[in-house]
Design brief:
By secondary structure, the chain is α+β, with helices and mostly antiparallel strands. Helices cover about 25% and strands about 35% of the residues. The chain has two helices and twelve strands; from the N terminus they run αβββββββββββαβ. It has helices at about 15-60, 175-180, and strands at about 60-65, 70-80, 85-90, 95-105, 105-115, 130-135, 140, 145, 150-155, 165-170, 170-175, 185-190. The strands form two sheets. Strands 3, 4, 5, 6, 7, 8, 10 and 11 form an eight-stranded antiparallel sheet that branches. It has a four-stranded antiparallel sheet with strand order 2-1-12-9. β6 (about 130-135) and β7 (about 140) form a beta hairpin.
Length: about 190
Protein backbone atom coordinates (compact mmCIF):
# COMPACT_ATOMS: atom_id res chain seq x y z
CA UNK A 1 0.00 0.00 0.00
CA UNK A 2 1.34 3.42 -0.98
CA UNK A 3 0.57 6.39 1.26
CA UNK A 4 0.96 9.80 -0.37
CA UNK A 5 1.79 12.73 1.87
CA UNK A 6 1.37 16.15 0.26
CA UNK A 7 3.63 18.76 1.84
CA UNK A 8 1.88 21.85 3.25
CA UNK A 9 4.10 24.11 1.14
CA UNK A 10 2.63 22.86 -2.14
CA UNK A 11 0.90 25.69 -4.02
CA UNK A 12 -2.78 25.55 -4.84
CA UNK A 13 -2.26 26.33 -8.53
CA UNK A 14 -1.82 22.67 -9.25
CA UNK A 15 1.72 22.95 -10.58
CA UNK A 16 3.32 21.45 -7.53
CA UNK A 17 0.49 19.02 -7.09
CA UNK A 18 0.88 18.05 -10.72
CA UNK A 19 4.52 17.32 -10.23
CA UNK A 20 3.77 15.60 -6.95
CA UNK A 21 1.04 13.54 -8.61
CA UNK A 22 3.31 12.65 -11.51
CA UNK A 23 6.11 11.80 -9.10
CA UNK A 24 3.72 9.86 -6.89
CA UNK A 25 2.29 8.06 -9.87
CA UNK A 26 5.82 7.15 -10.90
CA UNK A 27 6.60 6.06 -7.34
CA UNK A 28 3.35 4.13 -7.20
CA UNK A 29 4.12 2.18 -10.35
CA UNK A 30 7.71 1.67 -9.19
CA UNK A 31 6.49 0.64 -5.73
CA UNK A 32 3.87 -1.65 -7.20
CA UNK A 33 6.57 -3.15 -9.41
CA UNK A 34 8.77 -3.56 -6.35
CA UNK A 35 5.91 -5.06 -4.38
CA UNK A 36 5.18 -7.45 -7.25
CA UNK A 37 8.89 -8.33 -7.47
CA UNK A 38 9.07 -8.82 -3.68
CA UNK A 39 5.94 -10.96 -3.82
CA UNK A 40 7.36 -13.02 -6.68
CA UNK A 41 10.67 -13.25 -4.84
CA UNK A 42 8.84 -14.32 -1.67
CA UNK A 43 6.88 -16.94 -3.63
CA UNK A 44 10.12 -18.18 -5.22
CA UNK A 45 11.78 -18.34 -1.78
CA UNK A 46 8.85 -20.35 -0.42
CA UNK A 47 9.01 -22.70 -3.42
CA UNK A 48 12.79 -23.06 -2.97
CA UNK A 49 12.28 -23.88 0.72
CA UNK A 50 9.80 -26.63 -0.24
CA UNK A 51 12.19 -27.95 -2.92
CA UNK A 52 15.15 -27.80 -0.51
CA UNK A 53 13.12 -29.63 2.15
CA UNK A 54 12.19 -32.28 -0.41
CA UNK A 55 15.83 -32.54 -1.53
CA UNK A 56 16.93 -32.81 2.11
CA UNK A 57 14.44 -35.61 2.60
CA UNK A 58 15.73 -37.32 -0.55
CA UNK A 59 19.26 -37.07 0.88
CA UNK A 60 18.27 -39.14 3.91
CA UNK A 61 20.08 -42.44 3.77
CA UNK A 62 20.30 -45.88 5.32
CA UNK A 63 23.64 -47.27 6.42
CA UNK A 64 23.66 -50.95 5.43
CA UNK A 65 26.08 -53.71 6.26
CA UNK A 66 25.80 -56.68 3.89
CA UNK A 67 27.67 -59.96 3.81
CA UNK A 68 29.36 -61.59 0.80
CA UNK A 69 26.03 -63.04 -0.41
CA UNK A 70 24.44 -59.55 -0.14
CA UNK A 71 22.30 -60.53 2.86
CA UNK A 72 21.47 -57.56 5.05
CA UNK A 73 23.15 -57.74 8.46
CA UNK A 74 22.58 -54.18 9.76
CA UNK A 75 20.43 -51.25 8.67
CA UNK A 76 20.64 -47.86 10.41
CA UNK A 77 18.78 -44.70 9.43
CA UNK A 78 21.15 -41.77 8.84
CA UNK A 79 19.34 -38.51 7.97
CA UNK A 80 21.12 -35.79 6.01
CA UNK A 81 23.88 -34.16 8.11
CA UNK A 82 24.02 -36.89 10.75
CA UNK A 83 26.78 -39.42 11.30
CA UNK A 84 28.12 -42.64 12.78
CA UNK A 85 31.46 -44.16 13.71
CA UNK A 86 33.20 -47.44 13.03
CA UNK A 87 34.98 -48.40 16.25
CA UNK A 88 37.41 -51.23 16.82
CA UNK A 89 40.16 -52.34 19.18
CA UNK A 90 43.68 -52.00 17.77
CA UNK A 91 44.92 -55.51 16.99
CA UNK A 92 48.28 -55.03 18.75
CA UNK A 93 47.70 -52.40 21.46
CA UNK A 94 44.06 -53.23 22.19
CA UNK A 95 42.88 -49.62 22.59
CA UNK A 96 39.79 -48.37 20.74
CA UNK A 97 40.14 -46.52 17.42
CA UNK A 98 37.33 -44.58 15.73
CA UNK A 99 36.64 -43.53 12.15
CA UNK A 100 33.64 -41.22 12.02
CA UNK A 101 31.54 -40.59 8.92
CA UNK A 102 28.65 -38.32 8.00
CA UNK A 103 25.83 -38.28 5.48
CA UNK A 104 26.75 -35.14 3.57
CA UNK A 105 24.01 -34.49 1.01
CA UNK A 106 23.58 -38.21 0.38
CA UNK A 107 27.31 -38.98 0.26
CA UNK A 108 29.37 -41.00 2.76
CA UNK A 109 32.15 -38.69 3.95
CA UNK A 110 34.95 -39.51 6.40
CA UNK A 111 34.96 -36.56 8.81
CA UNK A 112 37.35 -37.45 11.64
CA UNK A 113 39.32 -40.19 13.31
CA UNK A 114 40.30 -40.79 16.93
CA UNK A 115 43.57 -42.54 17.73
CA UNK A 116 44.81 -42.92 21.30
CA UNK A 117 48.42 -43.49 20.20
CA UNK A 118 50.80 -43.59 17.23
CA UNK A 119 50.66 -47.39 17.10
CA UNK A 120 51.19 -49.58 14.03
CA UNK A 121 49.00 -48.53 11.12
CA UNK A 122 47.91 -45.30 12.80
CA UNK A 123 49.01 -41.72 12.41
CA UNK A 124 48.22 -38.41 10.80
CA UNK A 125 49.00 -37.88 7.12
CA UNK A 126 49.90 -34.19 6.58
CA UNK A 127 47.38 -32.46 4.33
CA UNK A 128 44.61 -34.89 5.31
CA UNK A 129 42.73 -33.13 8.09
CA UNK A 130 44.35 -31.59 11.15
CA UNK A 131 45.65 -33.31 14.24
CA UNK A 132 44.52 -32.05 17.65
CA UNK A 133 45.00 -33.43 21.15
CA UNK A 134 42.10 -35.27 22.72
CA UNK A 135 43.30 -34.08 26.16
CA UNK A 136 43.94 -37.67 27.31
CA UNK A 137 47.22 -38.51 25.58
CA UNK A 138 45.65 -39.40 22.24
CA UNK A 139 44.53 -37.27 19.33
CA UNK A 140 41.74 -36.55 16.88
CA UNK A 141 42.31 -36.03 13.19
CA UNK A 142 39.55 -33.56 12.35
CA UNK A 143 38.27 -31.91 9.17
CA UNK A 144 39.23 -34.78 6.89
CA UNK A 145 36.15 -34.30 4.64
CA UNK A 146 37.03 -37.27 2.42
CA UNK A 147 34.20 -38.70 0.30
CA UNK A 148 34.15 -42.50 0.18
CA UNK A 149 34.18 -43.66 -3.46
CA UNK A 150 30.81 -45.14 -4.37
CA UNK A 151 29.55 -44.40 -0.82
CA UNK A 152 30.63 -47.89 0.22
CA UNK A 153 33.70 -49.84 1.28
CA UNK A 154 34.65 -53.41 2.11
CA UNK A 155 35.78 -54.52 5.56
CA UNK A 156 37.22 -57.80 6.78
CA UNK A 157 35.48 -57.97 10.17
CA UNK A 158 37.86 -58.65 13.04
CA UNK A 159 37.69 -61.34 15.67
CA UNK A 160 35.80 -60.66 18.91
CA UNK A 161 38.91 -59.18 20.55
CA UNK A 162 39.10 -56.59 17.71
CA UNK A 163 35.31 -56.15 17.92
CA UNK A 164 34.48 -53.99 14.90
CA UNK A 165 31.31 -52.13 15.79
CA UNK A 166 29.08 -49.37 14.49
CA UNK A 167 28.20 -46.56 16.87
CA UNK A 168 25.26 -44.27 16.13
CA UNK A 169 23.30 -42.07 18.54
CA UNK A 170 24.73 -43.84 21.58
CA UNK A 171 23.79 -47.30 20.25
CA UNK A 172 26.42 -49.90 19.37
CA UNK A 173 26.11 -52.85 16.97
CA UNK A 174 28.97 -55.37 17.04
CA UNK A 175 29.85 -56.51 13.53
CA UNK A 176 32.26 -59.04 15.07
CA UNK A 177 29.28 -60.71 16.79
CA UNK A 178 27.52 -60.93 13.42
CA UNK A 179 30.31 -61.70 10.96
CA UNK A 180 33.76 -62.20 12.52
CA UNK A 181 36.34 -63.16 9.89
CA UNK A 182 33.99 -62.35 7.02
CA UNK A 183 34.16 -59.69 4.35
CA UNK A 184 31.25 -57.25 4.52
CA UNK A 185 30.30 -54.12 2.63
CA UNK A 186 29.37 -50.99 4.53
CA UNK A 187 27.38 -48.62 2.36
CA UNK A 188 25.20 -45.54 2.50
CA UNK A 189 22.13 -46.05 0.34
CA UNK A 190 18.92 -44.17 -0.43
CA UNK A 191 16.03 -44.93 1.89
CA UNK A 192 14.07 -47.80 0.27
CA UNK A 193 10.71 -46.79 -1.17
CA UNK A 194 7.88 -47.96 1.04
Amino acid sequence: MLVLVVPASASSDGSSQGSISQHSSSQASTSQGSIAQESASSDASAQNAVVNAAEGASENRVLEVRDRSDSLLVSLSVPQGEGWCLKWNHSVEGFPVLDCYRNEHGRMVLERSHQPDFAAGLGHVPGRGRQVSDGHGGYWIKDIHEPVPGDRYLLRVGAPRVNHRLVREGKTVSLSDLAAGQRVSIGLRPVPAS
